[in-house]
Design goal:
The protein has 471 residues and is α/β, with parallel strands linked by helices. The chain folds into 2 domains: 239 residues, P-loop containing nucleotide triphosphate hydrolases (Rossmann fold, 3-Layer(aba) Sandwich), CATH 3.40.50; 213 residues, no CATH class. 41% of the residues lie in helices and 13% in strands. It is built from 19 helices and 14 strands. A 5-stranded parallel sheet has the order 4-7-10-1-11. Strands 12-14-13 form a 3-stranded antiparallel sheet, covered by helices on one side. Helix 13 crosses helix 16. It starts with 12 loop residues before the first helix and ends with a strand.
Length: 471
């Protein structure tokens, strides 16, 4: 709105005119409110991490250019969240002709019913207000029909006496109902070709035909789309005319640094680490949890075009914390610290989240892939720590026939007893996260053992849920 409204909102067309309110298109609203937020230095998309210098600037340019947008990226790249976040750039509320099905602008109505009401009532025409959070709607493309998003002849209205050649006989779909708002279509390549034709007409010509009945509405709407590149770029999935009419393509991506991935993981997991049996998560365990996802994205056995969602990290992080908290509750510990053995349970939270590359020459089961990327992640993080601390002496211990047993339900005190039987070289393990806390020391020991195994310095065997490391 260009004019500050009084505490009592206008309730009639005459009061609205007297207030000085002026009509503004949806894209102009987005344009003006974006500039206001930019000039004030406000955060444009709260909760979105890692896009400050890549995706968000492109969105800003598209809004200032008054374009409809396509968000293209792999799963778990916040496409839907970004689209929903654009509603924040709308005005808090806008007036419309009371009772109008398409929320007609009182100063620029488009439906016959609203025009007739204003012609009959004049300045006494009643006005209602449409809040920002109701001016955004989205639809998932699979199964969407023309009637859902564009409209259909309404048999009930025909039975009530409306003529088939009259606008009053129509039942409008989501897009006309979002006149003066934002409409988002998720996974547009899965959309029926007939609906795609209807969409490109709306994007450009504003010409809609429902069962042969021509309607020319000057619809005021911002249309957003989302798509996965593997399907969007596949020939025949999206008709060229629709692609041609989308103003800007916004390419999303996964976090470019592991630290950003960890920030997203912790933010989205939404776990309270305090309360009964609080959990303290060492940095190296967070790094491994996120690195597992990074390794899955690089794996030759995972379909790279499908991608690996951030939900993979989030689910595994929650499972790791749950395992540690369960141990504390069962053993009566005051607090819990996650260990590598807690990651043995992430198979349950990982299954179904990876799309395997079925064209590869060597096939692995999903569980085998998960276990392989877990080992690769431990190796990557361990090598980074090993460069700083050096653990060659520890691997020599196993050449003397030492066997160490670990497990997710093994008390931390048991680790303490086992370490008393090995040389002081083990003290180097605690340089990873210096602490006198037995639980933290147990986590460090498991990290070193898993790292040595990942680098093929030692072997391991699993027996009754316990893991034994040996030469």
């Amino acid at each position: 709105m260009t004019t500050t409204m009084t505490e009592t909102k206008p309730r009639t067309l005459g009061e609205l005119k007297a207030s000085g309110w002026q009509s503004k298109s949806v894209k102009q609203e987005l344009h003006d409110n974006l500039l206001r937020l930019l000039s004030a230095g406000e955060t444009l998309f709260p909760g979105i991490v890692g896009y400050d210098h890549t995706v968000i600037p492109e969105i800003c340019l598209a809004i200032l250019a008054k374009h409809d947008m396509l968000f293209m990226g792999e799963k778990g790249q916040a496409k839907s969240r970004m689209m929903r976040g654009l509603a924040r750039l709308l005005d808090p509320e806008i007036p419309f002709v009371a009772g109008s099905e398409l929320h007609d602008d009182p100063l620029n109505p488009i439906t016959r019913s609203a025009k007739r009401l204003i012609a009959a009532e004049g300045d006494a025409t009643p006005i209602e207000w449409w809040p920002r959070d109701e001016r955004y709607a989205e639809r998932l493309a699979p199964g969407t029909k023309f009637a859902d998003v564009i409209g259909e002849i309404d048999p009930a209205k025909l039975a009530g006496g409306s003529s088939m050649s009259a606008e009053e006989a129509l039942h409008f779909g989501l897009i006309p109902r979002m006149h003066r708002g934002i409409f988002a279509m998720n996974e547009v390549p899965e959309l029926d070709e007939l609906v795609q034709v209807g969409l490109f007409n709306i994007l450009e010509e504003r010409d809609v035909q429902i069962r042969g009945f021509p309607i020319r509405f000057d619809l005021d709407i911002c249309i957003l789309f989302s798509a996965n590149p593997s399907t969007y770029n596949r020939s025949g999935k999206v008709i060229p005319q629709l692609k041609d009419r989308i103003g800007s393509l916004i390419r999303t991506h996964y976090p470019e640094q592991r630290e950003l991935g960890i920030e997203i993981m912790e933010q989205e997991a939404g776990i309270n680490l305090e309360g009964d049996f609080p959990v303290r998560v060492p940095l190296f365990m967070k790094e491994i949890c996120e690195q597992i996802t990074i390794e899955a994205r690089k794996s030759d056995f995972v379909d790279v075009q499908s991608g690996v969602s951030a939900r993979f990290s989030i689910s595994n992080y929650r499972t790791m914390i749950a395992s540690a908290r369960r141990r504390a509750a069962v053993l009566g510990d005051a607090h819990a610290i996650p260990r590598i053995s807690d990651l043995s349970h992430i198979v349950s939270s990982s299954m179904g989240k990876l799309e395997l590359d079925m064209m590869g020459s060597h096939q692995m089961s999903e569980q085998q892939v998960i276990e392989a990327v877990m080992v690769a992640a431990v190796r990557k993080v361990f090598d980074e720590y090993c460069d700083k601390h050096g653990f060659e002496e520890i691997s020599d211990i196993f050449g003397k026939g030492v066997t160490i047993e670990v497990g997710d339900m093994l008390p931390s005190s048991d680790y303490q007893e086992r370490l008393q039987r090995v040389p002081p070289a083990w003290e180097k393990a605690f340089e990873i996260n210096p602490s006198d806390d037995p639980a933290m020391r147990a986590a460090c020991v498991e990290f070193v053992l898993a790292g040595l195994y990942a680098n093929e310095k030692i072997s391991r065997s699993t027996r009754h849920g316990r893991v034994e490391y040996e030469m």
